[in-house]
Amino acid sequence: MAARVGIPRVTVYILVGLALGPHAGLRLFDAETGVGQFMLGPHTASALTVFKQLGVGFILFGIGAEFRFETFREVGARVLRLSASEIGATGLLVAGAVYAGSGDWRLAVIAPALAISSAPSATLVTLREVEADGPASRCLILCVGLNNLVALLAFPLLLSMAFGAGHPGQVTAFALVALTGGSVIGFGAAVWLESITGRRELVLLGLLVVLASLGLVHWFETGSGGLGMLGCFAAGMTLANVSPHSGTLFRYLENTIYPVYVFFFIAAGRDLHVEAVLQGGLLGVLFIVARAAGKLLGARGGLHLTGWDESLPPSLGAGLMCQAGIALGLVSTLEWTVPEATAELRHVVVASVVVFELAGPWLVRQTVVGAGEVKLANLLPHTEAKGAEALRWVFLELRRNLGFLRAESTAREEDHTVQHAMRRRPRVVSGALSFERVLKALSESGADLLAVVDEAGRFKGVISYEEVKNTLYDPVLRNLVIAEDLTSTVDDALALDSSLASALEVMDRHRVQSWPVVEDGHLAGMVRRTDVYQLMRRD
Fold first, then answer.
1. Contact 118, 320 (CB under 8 A)
2. pTM of the shown model
3. In the listed set 373, 400, 435, which residue is the last one of a domain according to the structure?
């Protein structure tokens, strides 16, 4: 039902936890005593806490894997400016709103750290659900990581400035210990990874890395407000940058531990205090509005500063709205350091988490879909068989296994075409690009073909590695050749309504792994052989 209206799975899991938890009023009654029992009451809290810790560890491990040095060499400076603009705007607007609503400058000083953090869990899992792939998706992940790093490192300093509480030097030292320890664990795993190839061994190694990093957290952590989780982040970042086999490990691990994510979000839903939304008052409204405005306006200003306003969606800040665990961890720190002075702000942040944790995943999904970075097939709900039709397929399979029906007669007829499998935002270059830039773009795209377009966006042809390698080792030609010289014209480009079988036939004929899809002379996307196989296998 949720898939029909574009609601992410993350939101569904959170709503399930909310409905079955102690804050929604849904109870089961004991027939003998008449006492109401929450479905996810205190008897399940300890088990769900374990899933919450594991979930955060695996998610930060995956976020760290996105911080690759090759990506930062390409867009690092721009991402830092974009993130600085978004963090600065959010912090200033929230500080002003909290001071206007409370009149307490101390709350205004610490409020920005509580507001700039984003929920890496909801953001990453939502992006993985729709298999978003493109510059906006990568930018969101990097900005979420930077947001949380700044929030965690700035919070103890702001707390000390405002209330003279805490030990910022000790907390900073602990953060460095966690980062260093996680990096050592990740480096050791990379060395170990060179000697194993089996899927089960890869998954076990990933599990050991995360568990070791979490063990490091509990070994050292003493009221650091969640800084220990930086060990998982550092382990993922180190492993991704020093091992050529890390991509396979992360892919296998992601498929294995997804049930942990499910319980993690159910636990998050159980802990949502919906009543806090009504108790937030004017200060709560000001905080929520200021945070949303800061994310949107700050990201938009950052896009303009970095020159990305033409290539990334102006609503990029909407993808940074998710707010959850880290903000609540900082709130718990306030609760045991300065409980009385921060009570009003803590209620406001809890209310903010309820709003943004429920709306955030949908905003992330809309952001990447609007950016054209999601294949159409990933947006289609699986509703081919239901009710009587589903029952018919079950009996057909039973008859086939009993030997009364040939397998061929149970095949379904699908009408998926190239437009369902293609990537709508592939890497493209202009014909005037230098050879060195072409080589860099080809290596970063991960595809065997690079589409070439003119200034008006009209499709001109493709550049293949076969064309590039002839120039690669000639120092004279490398300085003379441009993209236009390497471009091969394409007379048999695929159309949006081309069948998947015809796409495979064209790629077989040209002996390539991808091929352009053209509509009205403009590049509509690139279809890859692996994506076609994936869609056909799903069917």
1. yes
2. 0.74
3. 373
3-state secondary structure of 38: strand
| Strands 449-453 and 428-430, bridge-based pairing | parallel
Q: Decide if 530 is inside a domain.
A: yes
The range of the structural domain enclosing residue 50 comes to 45-373
Task: Judge contact between 229 and 63, C-beta under 8 A.
Answer: no
Pair 356, 321: CB distance under 8 Å: yes
Domain shared by 84 and 144, yes or no: yes
Helices (H), 164-280: 168-193, 199-220, 230-242, 246-256, 258-270, 275-279
The CA distance from 451 to 462, in Å, is: 5
Task: Flag whether 405 is in a domain.
Answer: no
Tokens of 344: 């009003």
* Tens digit of each residue's pLDDT (9 = 90 or more) over 437-471: 887 777 767 777 888 888 878 888 888 877 777 66
Residue 232's pLDDT band (cuts 50, 70, 90): confident
Task: Tell which of 305, 339, 373 closes a domain.
Answer: 373
Backbone angles phi, psi at 423, to 5 degrees: -95, 120
Q: Hey, what are 375's tokens?
A: 């294949």
Q: Tell me which residue has tokens 């006492």.
A: 35
Per residue in 480-507, pLDDT (tens digit) is 788 888 888 888 888 888 888 888 888 8
| Contacts (Cβ under 8 Å, ≥6 apart) of 409 | none
CA distance 408 to 377: 25
CB 235 within 8 A of CB 186: yes
The DSSP call for residue 119 is -
Domain co-membership, 97 together with 224: yes
First to last CA, the chain: 20
Looking at the structure of the chain, the number of domains it has is: 2
* CA dist list (Å): 42 to 207, 267, 316, 369: 28, 12, 39, 39
Cβ contact 452:461 at 8 Å: yes
Domain with 71 in it: what CATH number? 1.20.1530.20
Retrieve residue 317's tokens: 């800040």
Quickly state the pLDDT bin for 413 (edges 50, 70, 90).
Answer: very low
Same domain, 118 and 215: yes
**Is residue 224 domain-shared with residue 101, that is, in the same domain?**
yes
Q: 321, 376, 253, 251: which is closest to 86 by C-alpha?
A: 321
At what angle are helices 168-193 and 246-256 packed, to 10 degrees? 100
Q: Which helix H or strand E contains 462, and what residues bound it? A: strand 459-464
